[in-house]
Amino acid sequence: MDKWKKEDCVRCLRAKQEEVGRLPKKSDFDSETVNRIKGWFGPWPRALEAAGLKEPNRERAEKRREKRRRAIRNRIRYRREHPRPKENQERKEEK
After folding, report:
1. Rounded to the nearest 5°, which phi and psi values hold at 55?
2. Backbone dihedral angles phi then psi of residue 25, each to the nearest 5 degrees
3. Most buried residue among 16, 24, 52, 91 by CB atoms closer than 10 A?
4. How far apart are the C-alpha atoms of 16 and 9, rounded to whole Å?
5. 33 burial level (CB within 10 Å; 0-12, 13-18, 19+)
């Protein structure tokens, strides 16, 4: 099999879990298979989550959401504190 689809990776992970009776580790696969799986899903824990073998880390997801919220708040605050010079605004209006 040259090109793997996401479904192939998920199937491979689930089959390995059935075979070994625990969450599969990267060391349970050859390096080519690990690279294909990580190519689709990124870090190994995300691959296990995508295959439904591991519960998603809610704390990590909440931290990521909070980081986005802070970035938005900071961007808004920065724009209020640093308004664009009027001449730049006039040039944009002319265009």
Report:
1. -70, 140
2. -100, 160
3. 24
4. 11
5. middle
